[in-house]
Each structure stands twice: as structure tokens, then as C-alpha cells.
User: Fold this.
Amino acid sequence: MAAVQGGLVDADEDKDIKTEASNDSWGNNNANDGRLLSPSPGSSASAGSNKSAAGASEEQQTLLAVLQFLRKNKLTESVEILRREAGLPEDSLEPKGAESSGAGSGGASGGVDLEGGDASSLLSRVTASSTAGAQAPTKVAAGEDQPDVNVVLSAYSQQGDPALYEVYYSGLKRFIESVLDCHRAELSQVFYPLFVHMYLELVYNNHESEAKAFFEKFSGDQECYYEDDLRVLSSLTKKEHMRGNETLLDFRTSKFVLRISRDSYQLLKRHLQERQNNQIWNIIQEHLYIDIFDGMPRSKSQIDAMSGSLAGEAKREANKAKVYYGLLKEPEIELPLDDEDEEAENEEGKPKKKKPKKDSLGSKSKKQDPNAPSQNRIPLPELKDSDKLDKIMYMKEATKRIRLGPDNLPSICFYSFLNAYQGLTAVDFTDDSSLIAGGFADSTVRVWSVTPKKLRKVKSAADLNLIDKESDDVLERIMDEKTASESKILCGHSGPVYGISFSPDRNYLLSSSEDGTVRLWSLQTFTCLVGYKGHNYPVWDTQFSPHGYYFVSGGHDRVARLWATDHYQPLRMFSGHLADVTCTRFHPNSNYVATGSSDRTIRLWDVLNGNCVRIFTGHKGPIHALAFSPNGKFLASGATDGRVLLWDIGHGLMVGELKGHTDTIYSLRFSRDGEILASGSMDNTVRLWDATKAFDDLETDDFTAATGHIHLQDNSQELLLGTYMTKSTPVIHLHFTRRNLLLAAGAYNP
Amino acid sequence: MSAPKTIPKDAQVMIQILKDMGITEYEPRVINQMLEFTYRYVTTIIEDAKIYATHAKKSNVDADDIKLAIQCRMDQSFTSPPPRDFLLEVARQKNQTPLPLIKPYTGPRLPPDRYCLTAPNYRLKSIQKKVSSSAGRISVPRLSVGAVSSRPSTPTLGTPSVQSVTTKVGTPVSLTGQRFTVQIPPPSQTTTTKTTTPSTPAVSNVLINPSLIGSKNILITTNMVSQNTGGESLKRKHEDDDDYDAL
Assistant:
């Protein structure tokens, strides 16, 4: 069944597109991946396959039913094509009006049905799918029938008698409890998705009382980390409640992915294909995607580490694409002859040369790192003179950087926002730590200067005419001294500001807000320059790319968008999450974007073509913090469950888990050389972790990648280098200065 | 002594709802906010339903009206984000176009001005100009712009405006009866005049085309009127183009 997800009927291409779009746009249709669930002859109706090996009578029945359906909707050409391809004789069509259905395709066909064959309207599909359930029973009743076709075709809507759902589930429970220990953990994964889907089916088909009874009986058995979901489900008792809840609708139509070893799977399959358990088998086939691997079954702890997301785990091929996680080469900067220039370390003491010097930090090896993207993989803005000056400053500061380590912890400087009355919603520092910006719930953005240098606006046009343009300090003269102040307030949004980001060249500030817009502010005139409208729903996070020019934003509409400052529409849309995108971060080489979401997964997207190249599951709560390591190889993530998870991007695996925080983690940051990971949380603490040790000795081989047998060492205690408590200030933002001093920010919350 | 405070029943229900949804920590104001939302929502729905019922000429509001009211409100206020297949489709199309190349040396990279918020969002109203009634007054309708009056080259003697000008430019503008000479000041002076004209309220940045005026530099009497009108109208065209805050 999984292999034929591509569509209801290949002949009907419109439906094909819809169902294809309804599944994630990669990988689902690969029938050539031998590990996929083999299409069993008893599969439910969506197998409108045009394989001529339709020997099994049930498949034949399915085909006939599909033909019926097409004919009913007057899609005569499709009828012809299908009949020809399937090799069915003319008169084998039965006058049957049953709706053919299957998981996502059930929705699609329902949609088509309603539209009377207008398959091009994608939007109606959702409302259609919501009524598909109601439709099918009536249709089934209406058609003259053969009982076999009936049962097969009403698959999604109703697997047998609702009152028997409890019996089915209990039966499965008994079976799984009776298998060998080594298989039990794996097979127990089936409980949760099965439970949810069965419950939703009951609700959809308006069997409210059965649904409630079913829920009460079995919800307590589920894993504890699904508690929040179950609570949401418990309030859903009618079909109307599901309208408008996009997350649940997506859950219904997408397939929950399970990774089970071949042996366990065989056990399950054998048991369920026995006659009386056929209904559960059908349900499993429709709603679950079982990714089979060869090898030892996984243990409970291994499974627990990786599960927890709304869509199960990640399929193996979702994490197979090559990711260029290396860093871009630093451009060689010709240092202009400048007496104040400190030479790089190896030139100390030498007499100043008269010819321009090259910077020695980035160009140690001329060979291209095989894991690094090429320089022009994505267009990046060229360096202006001011950028080059910035880079020189950066390198100078880098030479003065403190080397951190377990025995040399950074000092932490905490910036408390007083009198914010819980209104502080976002904070950002510039890279050189000279400015700090705060986004507030009263929709203002405030910028402060951290250094004694005050903030000044550029003079008005009239005054600018008066200054001497040729003087050396013209950049100072354009600033209006009369407007100097410690802080500036930027007003413009009409809702709380949830995301803030400075541009790397310190000219611009981005802010994203609940009003659905992202605003670009100039830090020279302290006015708003552009409002980027695209999300029509709250935008939870935004970030400038490390090279400037591009920025990414993610919001409630479950997509993340990539923009450039000079385009009023987004350049890329990263769509695939099942719930809000709560955190967006650029990779240091600007070629990839990581998004964390309320569906408890993290996805890594390729900027070049918008594809999702990695899916990381394992968190048990919405993700609020992401951080790339400075060398680009690793990603750290923090969520409401209080754990920090470490991921190897190249292999697509979880490599570490840091337990310690007791509340949501809102900020994560690696030190400048990647030795220390700092995490700040709502439990009013900042914790420092030893990142070098955490990434040491990683066993990442193909076996691990293939099977998901991760071996997480339980060494959180060893890796924890220090816990620093604030009085009662949740830590919202962390920032390492260029010299490895740790700055933290939060609003004092008495 | 005040009686022990009892929480109203609605609030108790709200507390129970919050507990059922698993929310255990919240500020006390949250209950008030939730209750207000509930009250406003229910009132809106019922009012809408009443309207629908009267429209359908029913005497009582019944369940269908309520359902219709809810549905309309949902579509209007409580919209939900687009469904996933739609998003995937749009994303697919958008992601197919290659990333645009970045032009070098373009200054601040901003979208076209239409999409920016950098344009002035205000216009200055012009003051009511009284056309001054000095002798030999040319009845040139200089109403719309008024800036004209500040020009040193204009033969009118709207006294205040001329004053502002003559400080900078010693323009010998003499009126002799109906005949007057206009001396066109050299362009440099006009430009400086331009910059000082902000002092005059009705004036703005105006392009003066000295050559144009020069061409009309004739000793005339009433002719001047027409000439000046001609000049004026040309000038006014410039002004109208450049100057939208003096309307």
C-alpha cells in the first residue's frame, strides 16, 4: 500500500497531483526502495494500481470499484484509459456507486467527488475530506453492492463496526504483550498512532459515544510524552471541532512513520493478517508507514529517544541527501596599509611591510573542503569596503579571544530588562556586541547601545547639504548630535514582536510580529524601511543570514519563508511541517536553514532548491531554540521538554542528549570556537556544557544510520560544566562576544 | 467586615476548563480575559443569529441560525492557515525559480519604492495666499503654487515674499508703472534662493528655469502679463511636478 501512494488511479492525473501533494513531496512514491511495505494483495482501496498482475480478486474488485466511481463522475476518458491499461473487459463494470477511498487519496477522491470531477481545486480538498467520512457510508448504502467491494472500499470511513474498535484494539494489545521482549518495545510503537487514528475515525463518522468510551479506555496506556496531544484530542468530540485545526487535519492525512526491524514486522503482519484481524491491518496500512530495517530490534530507550514527534520518526531516505555542511572560505582581504593594523600572530614583531598584507586566517588550505558548498552555490552579496573593515576588526578581536574549556569557563554578563512586565518577547545582540535590541509585547522595538557610544540618527536632507563632503570624518558629520540618546524606540508593528535580528553589517534590524509582517528598520535613521507581508499569521521567528541580504522567517502558517531585502515577496517557501514553525536559523554557510516546529521535529532545508534534506525527531515538545556549531557540522536544539539534543548533520543522527534543565529552553549558543555550549531556560538558569567532549568519539557508521540504533551515552552530568542561577529572570537570549565573553539577557520577573 | 469573596459561577467554570486543558499556572487576570472573550464571542454569534432569523422571517432563533452565524464568523475572524497540500503546491512552484543574482554596488538593497515605507506620507497644505494688490499687479493666477511669488524674477511685488528673497539676492526688481524690467538673476543665485525659501511657508523646492524666463525678458507692459503667464504656466508645470506638498 505504501508503494502505491502515488495516486488513486494513475490514469487520473489530477487526482494524482493532489495525493502527491498531500504526501510529503519527496520519497513517498519510490517503489524501488525495497524496504517499503510490500503492497499486499489485501490492501485497501487506494491501490488503484495499474499493475496487470491483479490476480487477487480483491484487487480486481478495487479496480472495478474505481471504474465505477470514474464512470459515475463522467470521467469517461479516464475510464477508457484505465480499462485499457488494466486489461478489463468492457462489461465487467458493475453499477456501483461506492466511493473508493484510501488515506490521503480518500480525501482526494472525496474532493473530486464533491466537485463533480473538477480535480483542480486543491482547497476544497480539506473540506471535502472532512465530509468524506460522512459521504462514504451513505454512498455505500446507496449502491447496489457486493459485500466484498463494500468492505474494501469503505476502508477509510469505517473499518467495520465502531463498537468493535475496542475489541480490535484490545486484541492487538493482548498480542503485543505476549510477544518476546525484544520485539515488544518495537511493536508498542504501534499503539499510539493506531489509537489516535481509530479515535479520529470514530469522531469523523459521528460515533461520539463510542469515541468517548474508546478514548477513556485506552488513553491511559499511551506513552507519557504524548500527554499533551491526548489532552487536545480529548476535547475533540465532534467532527466540526476538527475543522480549522490544520495540525490535526495534516496528521490525519499524513502517514505516521514507524521504524521496525524486519523480524518484528513479520510477527505483526502474520498476526494481523489472520481473518478476524483484518480490519486493524487495513487501518495500519492506511495510516502508518512502516520503514523496515534489517537488524536487531531496538530497545525501548532507543525508541524513546527518537520518538515523540507528531509524525513519528523520520524515514531513512528523508535523511539521505548530501548536505554541504562545511563552511565557506573566508575571502582573502587585502589589508589596506594602516598603521594601526595589528598583524596576525605570525607576523608579530616584524617590521611593517609596505605591500598590502593578506589575512591569514581563512586561507590556510587552498583545497576545497569536500563538505563545503561552492562559493557560488547560492548568490551572496559581495563584500563592500565597510564589510571588509568589519572583517578586519573581527580578525583583530579573534586574536584576543579567550580559549574556553572545562577548566576555563567564560564569564557571564547578564542584561536584565527591568520594568518590562512580562512584555519582553525577543532579544538580539549585534555580532560585535555593541547594540542590543528588545522586542516587546506592546509592539515596540527598542534598541540600546551597550557601549558608551550613543545612538545617533543621520541628519535630515537639508542639513546634509551643508556639511563638507570632502572631510575625512564625513561619516561622523552625517550624524546628528542633537538626536544622541542611549536608546531608541521603533514603533510600527501592530502586535507583539516575537523575533528580532540584527544584520551582520549593523545597518538593519529585522523584527517579526504577531501582525503577520516582518519589518526592516534602518539603524542609521531609526525608521522603518520595508514591511514584508506574506505570512498572514503570527511570525514567530526571523533571522538574517550570516552574510546579510537574505533572511528567513517562520510562523503560524507552518511554513518558513526565505526573503531577500530587495524583494517584496519571498524567494523560497519551506513547507512540510505539520504545525507552527517556532524557530528558524541559518547555517553558518548560509546554504541551509534549520526550522524547529511545534510538531516536535527539526527540519533542515536547502536554500538552493527549497528541499527538506534532514528531519530530526526526538524532542517531546515544541522546539524553541536552535544553534549551529561554528564548524557547521552539528546542530543543537532545545525544547519545552527541557532537554538539549545534539545532531550530526552530515549523517542525520542524534549524537547527544543533555539533560538538566527543568523547564523550556529558550536559547542556545555555541562559543566562538565551538568548545562550550551555553543554554538558557525558563528555569532561571544558564548552563554550560562541554561541547568538545560531547562530539568526541562519535560512532557514526552506516549501520547506525540505517537502523536508528543510536547509542546515547548518559553522560549529561559529566558534560555539565556549570549551572548559573539568576534571581528570577528567565534567560531568553545568549550571545558570545568575539572574545568569548558570554552575554545573557532576560526580563526580570519578580 | 466584608463577606468572604465568592467567585462567580462563570469564573468557576472557566477555572475548570483551564484545568481540564492542562493549564495549571496562570495569572489571575487570565480568567477575566477568557471570560470576556467568551462573552463577546457568544454575544456576537447570537446577535448574528438573530439577524439571520429575522431575515428568514422566523419568529424564534433556532439552531440553524446559530450554526450559520458560527460558520460565517469562523470564515471571517477565526481563519485558519491554508491547508498543507496548497502550501506544498505553492512552495513547489516558488522553489523552482532559481535564486536571483545579486547586482553589485547598488547601495541599500531595498525593494522598489512602491513596496517600501520610505515615501513621505504627508502633504503640506498651502496657506491662503492673498494676491497682493500693489500697482501694476499682474493678475497672474499664481494660486496653486504660490511659490512663484518668491521668485526674484517675478515682477510682482507680493511684498512679503519678495522680502524673503531680497535678503539673499539683490535683485533689482523695479516697477515702473506698467512697465517693468525684469532682471533675471544668475542661476547660482536662484539656486541659493531656492534653499532659503523654506522660510516662506508656501514655498517648496521649485525648479526655476532661468533660460526660460530669460527668453521672456522683454520690456513690456501688459505684455508682460501674458508673457509671464506663459512663463508662469511653464513654471507652474515644473512646480506641479516637483512639488506635491504645496497643494
Remarks:
- Residues 133-247 of chain B have pLDDT under 50 and may be disordered.
- The CA atoms of residues 76 and 240 of chain B lie 44 Å apart.
